[in-house]
Amino acid sequence: MQSLATSLVVLKVNRCEPELIKPAKPTPHEFKLLSDIDDQEGLRFQFPVMQFYRNNPSMEGKDPVKVIREALAKTLVFYYPFAGRLKEGPNRKLMVECTGEGILFIEADAEVTLEQLGDALPPPSFWLEELLFDVPGSSGMLDCPLLLIQVTRLECGGFIFALRFNHTMSDAQGIVQFLTTLGEMASGVSAPSIPPVWERHVFNARDPPRITCSHPEYDEVPDTKGTMIPLHEMVHRSFFFGPSEISAIRKLVPPDLSHGSTTFEILTAFLWKYRTIAVQPEASEEMRLMCTVNARGKYNLVELPAGYYGNSFVVPAAVAAAGELSRNPLGYALELVRKAKENVTEEYIRSVASLMVIKGRPQFTVVRALVVSDLRRAGFQEVDFGWGKAVYAGVARGGGGAIPGATSFYNAFTNKKGENGVMIPFCLPAPAMDKFVEELDGMLKRKNGETKSQLIISSL
User: Fold this and answer.
1) Domain residue spans in the chain?
2) Which homologous superfamily is 18-203 in?
3) Are 105 and 69 in contact (CB under 8 A)?
4) Angle at 426 between CA 258 and CA 261, to 5 degrees
5) The pTM is what?
6) Pfam families recorded for this chain (predicted)?
7) Active site residues
8) In this predicted model, what pLDDT tens digit does every residue of 379-404 receive, in sequence order?
């Protein structure tokens, strides 16, 4: 097992005072309701993203800070709700007051080159606080800026684009749509190729609301064992699963089940099982695995207008006793994960929206739960501000979100060998992390006949 982030440079960042970027033209002053999927408690958090860009000789003489700042003002003319502020109405209903106040923007310089940052680009970001400064008073849900952006120039001519967005406003695909428009505006176009569409009513509860499906992802489970540990007390590590690791994991399930399962399903079942073994709960305790299922794309569960940038996913849960999950072959967990995903239909999504209204927009179940979200095809790495595609783009750190310490995001990543795979940041208490690494490392080495694993790519 090898950690590649062993020799870190000291990062000195010089920041200018934060400023508000307002739309370049007057925009409507109005109130816009979020959907009943948007404003649930589980999405009321700030989501950080980091994007690293190399120097591009064709952009010689152009300042990424100036280019992006000007493009932001133009982009906010079309995405003007982002320049507003969230308000809360009856029954905790969230809405945006489109005030045009603007988003927070920070100009910065770092005394380092992209090459010197080396292997430490993937999460957990060692310099998150430096590269995405938490402006005092900016991180709340209500009456706060909905976007925080810091652009940090590097000595090599490259730069780092860091973004924090309020998750109630957009999911990953929605914010990538915004960033794509930002890139288009930076290139000089006058209007986005895909105009943004609000239309949040498509994910509202029925009238009257009706819960028609089972939703164990919102069960109220008391933490009688004291399992909830603060995020800052956990160990953060990122793991890379390339072709050989994924092939080894597939060999753990019967061929017919393997052939009918996606990489996401198999990898999720694998992590759920071995995380359970690592945290060592009592055999009778219920463990939950929640995975995001998007209504867009290949599932096409709800007809959405082109340009929709709100949240369009639900988080179904697979539930199993810890003892059963640990003792049974991997196929047991895999079938539970697949079943949870298959339960998601348009009716299921309508039922979730109704549950939000009836039960006061509850939080996801947080006790003995793991949440996973697949961002490999969200498109962060494709965003181009004129300097080309990002060297790395994705989450800044695992563990945040609805369930601190138990939320992991799957990111597309290419390792030093040029292998394309999945990079996953993970958080666990130190003893459990040691056990987790030992279990994964041992199993993968046995299956691949290797003497040395390269599973860990970064740690904090």
Assistant:
1) 18-203, 216-379+398-459
2) Chloramphenicol acetyltransferase-like domain (3.30.559.10)
3) yes
4) 10
5) 0.93
6) Transferase
7) 167, 384
8) 999 999 999 999 989 887 776 676 76
